[in-house]
Design brief:
The complex is a heterodimer of chains A (330) and B (692).
Chain A: H1 8-17, H2 23-27, H3 34-46, H4 57-62, H5 64-69, H6 73-80, H7 83-95, E1 99-102, H8 110-116, E2 123-128, E3 137-142, H9 148-163, E4 167-170, H10 176-186, E5 191-194, H11 199-204, H12 206-213, E6 217-221, H13 231-236, H14 238-243, E7 247-252, H15 258-269, E8 275-278, H16 286-293, E9 297-298, H17 308-318
Parallel strand pairs in A: 3-4, 3-7, 4-5, 5-6, 7-8, 8-9
Antiparallel strand pairs in A: 1-2, 2-6
Helix pairs in contact in A: 9-10
Chain B: H1 7-18, H2 29-37, E1 41-45, H3 52-65, E2 71-74, H4 82-90, E3 95-98, H5 106-114, E4 120-123, H6 125-128, H7 131-141, E5 147-150, H8 165-176, E6 183-187, H9 192-202, E7 205-209, E8 217-223, H10 227-237, E9 245-248, H11 252-264, E10 269-272, H12 280-288, E11 294-297, E12 312-315, H13 322-329, E13 339-345, H14 349-358, H15 364-376, H16 383-389, H17 394-404, E14 412-415, E15 418-421, H18 430-451, H19 457-464, H20 477-480, H21 491-502, E16 506-508, E17 536-541, H22 547-558, H23 563-576, E18 584-587, H24 596-608, E19 616-618, H25 631-636, E20 642-644, E21 653-660, H26 664-675, E22 681-688
Parallel strand pairs in B: 1-6, 1-7, 2-4, 2-5, 3-4, 5-6, 8-13, 9-11, 9-12, 10-11, 12-13, 17-22, 18-21, 21-22
Antiparallel strand pairs in B: 14-15, 16-17, 19-20
Helix pairs in contact in B: 2-3, 5-7, 10-21, 14-18, 23-24
The chains are: A alpha/beta (330), B alpha/beta (692).
Chain lengths: 330, 692
């Protein structure tokens, strides 16, 4: 992505919400959270303005009272003054192949916008071919520590998806995530990884680099490319994995514990959530059955054949009143 | 951003900083300040001395008075001049600089910036490439930067004469920078093509452009093909020219030799180049204080050197372009009424500038090799590790990496000491390289035309720079109608210079470390004293005008080194008189030319009245050593190749070879001889290849 391709709206959103690492975030005003940004965005919409208008001193001053009532005027002024920080940080990232999309960009993934609405991340960092999100995708998630049978199963579904041109969508983490993605990639399939930390490091890792250059792997993150691992971020990105997928397959979940459980049970509760399937054969952790009890479906048993995805689709339709079918799947 | 500025305010500040109650703005200064206060992006093209610093100092003061954050100034200058700092301080501006030399002060300066106690921070373009600096300093302070200044902005354009890769990064930073922050780009040298290119890259740029000619400069060109004649001319003329100045040479070797020659002629001259052993800043200071008469410098003495009373700039060779020449000669006469700008032209000029043009870009195959190596590396590679994987020198690898890393989206990146591959396809832009190479040749041709120009030289130069104010100067040789300085060199001095050029003995420095683990010996790490070669001597530089030509003819034309060379070696050895003086002579064997070197060594030994014992054998065919371009490969190529046989005397010995390149052959054979019981080994060669 060229540095000239950043729009003014994107720059404004980045100034408001961007976390640029190092001391800049600790010493200055805190970047806006998703919720706070939504407040500002709503305010702008009510004045028929867009984010870039905040870069105009006069317009900004006119909004002083309104801003003070929401997130604070001086905080916004401080955040918008971070122009040089923004420029230095983005230049470093973009130079290494990272591209940036904000909610104001037309290329911003429609699936995130429509399925998550206000919960969609204002900023999205990525590496690889964005067009991969338009492909049919199966979310495959599970714990970091999975037994051998679970790992075998995960690899098989990765390979099967590759053979049927279905993307694996996962979190890029150690364990189930990577097994599924690498199985698909090594079988010449495609994958999308929504990572919670270290986007940059992940992108240059030998095991992923070739697939990215080959336009078969897309890595995305709502967090800055240098972000370190935090439990909160790891939990937070789960919803994006679901939002980018047509179905989800839970390989292994511990009941009432861990990110997999939290993500899957949240998705099951979400009014327009996608269909959640659970591995339901062999020895499984206790969370798998518990999720079925919450409304998840058992994933069709092996061996899989051409009918697998139409089966999934039919079950999806059964759940149809809750799920608005996307055009991609018709 | 609309900030009303009172003209009176600005003028008052100007007068206060200059300590001159009647000073007024130079043309363009007030407009520039005004534009910055309106938040614009501005390119100012004005000659050095016009007062660019006054623009950013006053703009900084006025912006700071309106609660703006500090100014960030990116400049290749290492430090602001003392008088500039004083002028800034008089209007209450506190400046600080962060560079590679004041690492210990970084934290303190950062704290002061965060405490809002610094108004203008100066950093070098190279700093921006430094990850540690970006993380520890820049990230901390960048939140509030209120004005962005880029000095020497012509470096942005790769069409320019002085494109610097680090400026590519600055361009991208400025492209991302929201237009809430005003930007000032300044340069003293930019033709229309460069101005347009900079404007296109930075976007929305206002341009303020002034005249470039310097009225005090008196220009003259003298064609003098013979190098010795030019050296004689310098030795004769320099003492007659008042004040101190600079002699520019095209190569480091010439800077060293001309300086040495001038010192031999009692002229206080010091060489200045990228490999100077002396501290370069100290050398500049000595010239500033007129402690030395002349710095004999390469382009390394470049931007940022500002000595207002420099009274001459003389070129020993013709630079590659008029822009280069303008920039270098323009250092003279900034604040004095008269200064000389003399261009000497030599027979070697074209060949040297051709070489620079040809080697400006790395060959595609180097790029491919390096990317391939990084592709297959598990966990990145350091440059040292790359040298083990491929036969490329540190310099060659570094050239490729520094080109790649500033690409818009780079195929490589550096983390710590290691380089990694990013998931980005890369193709060397050969079309662009061809276009640039063509442009460089056109510039070279234009410089040749300047050399031969029969009319006003200043007008030629100004027109070549697209100066809209170009006009006849009335001071140069063509304008005056007679030479300003003599056209010929003294014959006797020229003869002496010829002899001096022939006598360029070179020290062969012994290698200290093995760098490669030899298979048959326990040789690794530091070479122990008892196996190390002594410092040796080479009679000449390979291909040089003096003995170098004789060596080349002996090796490639006559297949015999002449007795003249043997005599010259004897003379050199007498002057050198190594201790303990060797009691025998041996030589480096060759399978390809089995007689060439031993024949010469035998004659040399006879002249020295020493026995010649060819006890070193070559027992394996290896690739020619000169094809190995880095130490690792050079050492590896000699592993198990030589052997010492027969009786080895225990006295010290001359180890003779025709040419020394990396010195590895001498190093390995010296160690073998010492292991076989010889005394200290003194390498001796006819020529040192200056590539190393």
């Amino acid at each position: 992505m060229s540095t000239t391709a950043l729009t003014k709206d994107s720059k404004a959103i980045l100034l408001l919400c961007g976390v640029f690492g190092g001391k800049s975030d600790r010493d200055g005003s805190k970047p806006l959270t998703n919720t706070e940004y939504n407040k500002v965005a709503a305010l702008l919409v009510s004045h028929q303005l867009s984010p870039k208008d905040l870069l105009d001193t006069g317009t900004l001053e006119d909004l002083q009272l309104d801003l003070d009532r929401s997130v604070g005027y001086s905080r916004i002024v401080d955040l918008l003054a971070r122009g040089a920080t923004l420029a230095f940080a983005l230049e470093t990232w973009m130079n290494k192949g990272i591209w940036i999309l904000t909610r104001s960009d037309s290329a911003y993934p429609e699936a995130l916008r429509t399925r998550l609405g206000n919960a969609s991340p204002p900023i999205l960092y990525g590496v690889g071919d964005l067009a991969l999100i338009n492909q049919e995708g199966l979310a495959v998630v599970g714990s970091r520590n999975v037994d051998e049978a679970g790992e075998q199963y995960t690899a098989e579904i990765g390979q099967f998806c590759a053979s049927r041109d279905v993307s694996i969508i996962s979190g890029g983490a150690r364990g189930v995530d990577q097994v599924a993605m690498l199985a698909a990639l090594n079988s010449r399939g495609t994958a999308v990884g929504v990572v919670a930390d270290s986007l940059l490091k992940t992108a240059v890792a030998g095991k992923f680099r070739d697939a990215i250059m080959d336009k078969r792997l897309l890595l995305l993150s709502p967090y800055n490319p240098d972000a370190r691992f935090t439990v909160g971020n790891a939990m937070g990105r789960n919803r994006y994995i679901y939002a980018l997928s047509q179905f989800a397959l839970i390989i292994s979940a511990e009941k009432n514990s861990g990110g997999t459980w939290a993500g899957a049970s949240e998705e099951l509760k979400r009014p327009n959530g996608i269909s959640v399937f659970v591995r339901s054969e062999g020895k499984m952790p206790n969370g798998n059955d518990a999720l079925i009890a919450l409304g998840a479906y058992p994933f069709p048993a092996r061996p899989w054949d051409d009918s697998l995805f139409s089966t999934l689709k039919n079950m999806n339709n059964d759940r149809g009143n809750k799920f608005e079918q996307t055009s991609l799947f018709d | 951003m609309s900030v009303p500025v009172s003209e009176a305010d600005a003028l008052q500040l100007l007068r206060r900083s200059l300590e001159n109650p009647t000073a007024s703005f130079r043309q363009g200064q007030r407009e520039s300040i005004q534009a910055l206060l309106q938040g614009k992006r501005l390119l100012v093209v004005q000659r050095t001395g016009w007062g660019k610093s006054m623009v950013y100092f006053l703009a900084t003061r006025l912006l700071r008075d309106r609660n703006s954050g500090p100014t960030l100034l990116i400049s290749p200058l290492l430090s602001l001049m003392r008088n500039q700092i004083q002028a800034a301080e008089r209007i209450g501006i506190r400046a600080a600089s962060i560079n590679s030399n004041n690492n210990d002060d970084w934290q303190e300066i950062t704290d002061e910036l965060l405490g809002n106690h610094i108004d203008i921070l100066l950093i070098s373009p190279e700093r921006l490439a430094n990850e540690k600096f970006r993380q520890t300093v820049l990230q901390a302070i960048a939140n509030k930067i209120g004005l962005f200044v880029v000095d020497e902005a012509h470096c942005i354009s790769d069409w320019g004469h002085d494109f610097r890769p680090d400026y590519k990064r600055i361009v991208r930073v400025l492209q991302i920078l929201p237009d809430t922050i005003p930007v000032l780009a300044t340069t003293a040298t930019a033709n229309n093509r460069v101005v347009e290119d900079v404007a296109r890259q930075l976007g929305n740029l206002d341009v303020i452009r002034g005249p470039l000619i310097r009225e005090s400069l008196r220009l003259q060109n003298i064609m003098m093909p013979n190098k010795a004649a030019r050296m004689a001319w310098l030795a004769e003329v320099l003492p007659q020219v008042e004040g101190s100045g600079i002699v520019y040479t095209l190569t480091i070797r010439d800077a060293e030799r001309v300086a040495e020659w001038l010192r031999l002629n009692d002229i206080n001259a010091v060489a200045y180049h990228s490999k100077s052993l002396e501290d370069r800043e100290e050398l500049e200071q000595r010239l500033l204080r007129n402690d030395i008469k002349v710095l004999v410098a390469t382009v390394a003495l470049g931007m940022g050197f500002d000595k207002p009373d420099l009274s001459f700039v003389i070129h020993f060779q013709r630079p590659g372009s008029v822009v280069h020449y303008y920039q270098q000669v323009g250092r003279a006469g900034r604040a004095v009424d008269h200064a000389f700008g003399i261009l000497l032209g030599g027979e070697e000029d074209q060949e040297i500038t051709d070489y620079f043009i040809k080697n400006a870009f790395p060959p595609q195959v180097h790029v491919e090799k390096i990317l391939k190596a990084l592709d297959s590396a598990e966990d990145g590679l350091s440059i040292n590790e790359m040298q083990q994987h491929m036969n490329l020198s540190f310099g060659q690898i570094n050239k490729v990496l520094s080109l790649l890393v500033v690409e818009e989206v780079s195929p490589v990146y550096k983390d710590g000491h290691k380089w990694y591959r990013t998931p980005t396809e890369y193709q060397l832009n050969t079309q662009q390289i061809e276009a640039l190479t063509e442009l460089r040749h056109a510039e070279q041709h234009q410089m040749q035309q300047y050399m031969e120009c029969p009319t006003c030289l200043m007008r030629f130069m100004a027109s070549a720079l697209d100066d809209p104010y170009a006009s006849t100067c009335g001071k140069c040789e063509p304008c005056m109608g007679h030479p300003l300085l003599p056209l010929d060199a003294d014959e006797r001095l020229t003869n002496r210079a010829t002899i001096f050029l022939k006598r360029s003995h070179q020290v062969i420095q012994p290698r200290q470390r093995w760098l490669y683990k030899f298979s048959r010996h326990d040789w690794k790490g530091t070479i122990p004293e008892e196996l190390r070669a002594e410092p040796g001597m080479a009679l000449s530089l390979w291909g040089d005008a003096g003995w170098g030509t004789h060596v080349r003819n002996g090796k490639y034309r006559d297949n015999r080194f002449s007795d003249l060379l043997v005599d010259a070696c004897v003379e050199m050895i007498q002057k050198w008189s190594p201790k303990p003086f060797p009691g025998w002579v041996t030589c480096v064997p060759s399978l390809l030319h089995p007689e060439l070197v031993p024949d010469c060594a035998r004659r040399l030994a006879a002249k020295l009245n020493l026995p010649f014992l060819p006890c070193v054998q070559k027992k394996a065919v290896n690739a020619p050593q000169k094809q190995m371009v880095n130490s690792f490969q050079q050492a590896k190529n000699l592993d198990g190749v030589f052997d010492v046989q027969g009786l080895v005397p225990d006295g010290s010995v001359f180890l003779f070879d025709d040419m020394v390149d990396s010195g590895w052959t001498m190093t390995v054979i010296s160690a073998l001889l010492r292991e076989s019981g010889s005394g200290p080994v003194f390498p001796l060669a006819l020529a040192l290849d200056s590539q190393t």
